[in-house]
Amino acid sequence: MKSFSVFITILATASAFAPTPIKNVQRNAVALQMANADAEFYIDQERRNVMNLILVGSAGVTIAGLAIPFIAFFVPPGSGGGAGGSAAKDALGNGIQLKDYLELKPAGDRSLAQGLKGDATYLIVKPDKTLESYGLNAVCTHLGCVVPWSAPNNKFMCPCHGSQYSATGAVVRGPAPLPLALAHCETDESGAIIFKPWTEIDFRTEKKAWW
Q: Cβ distance 111 to 151 under 8 Å?
């Protein structure tokens, strides 16, 4: 009986130290590999999303950089106008006083000043040495060159493509499609010359102002 008890004790001890079944070890290894694979996939997906965002952003910046100049090419140049008045300024950016201006300029003079939106605009001195009630925007309506006044020819003559305008800015020769833009020319209480938008009918064409 004592020998049988010793045998049972030895058998129980051996069972406690028995190795784990091979199938269980393999199953645990496969589960661990799958967990690692899921973690790697999750990290790779995050990186892929970041790279996609970088790619899309870079492409957008490149397309915008190409598109903006292309679109701007088809936008016509500014030709005067604006919501309010703008002081006429000389080449140095100083305001122009009517009294001083008329003392310096001869009758029939057409000289440039800075007008609405900063566009070059002609101030016109009439034969009676008074200032004309309108100014003429000097921007050619063909491709935006500044049109000089030719006193010997009594008209504005564009040196870029040959367009010509009368003394009032009406087209007398193409390829310019439209007359020079008009702006009201007034003085304020201090005697400074002021340009204001011309929004009524164009007296040269009897049509609505195109600018």
A: no
Inter-residue contact 132 to 168 (CB < 8 Å)? no
Stated length of the chain: 211
Residue 168 pairs in a beta bridge with none
Q: Are 93 and 110 in contact (CB under 8 A)?
A: no
Q: Which two tokens stand for residue 73?
A: 């090419």
pTM for the whole structure: 0.60
| Cβ atoms < 10 Å from Cβ of 161 | 12
Which residues face 129 on adjacent strands?
Answer: none
Q: Is 186 helix (H, G, I), strand (E, B) or coil?
A: strand
Contact predicate 110/152, CB 8 Å = no
Listing DSSP states for 2-61 in one string gives: HHHHHHHHHHHHHHHTPPPPHHHHHHHHHHHHHHHHHHHHHHHHHHHHHHHHHHHHHHHH
CB 108 within 8 A of CB 132: no
What is the identity of the amino acid at 3? S
Q: What is the pLDDT of residues 33-54, one digit of tens each?
A: 555 555 555 556 676 777 777 7
Q: How far is CA 122 from the centre of its chain?
A: 28
Give bridge partners of residue 53 from the DSSP assignment.
none
Q: Identify which of 115, 75, 108 has the alpha carbon closest to the alpha carbon of residue 93.
A: 115
Report which secondary-structure segment, H or E, holds 68: helix 22-73
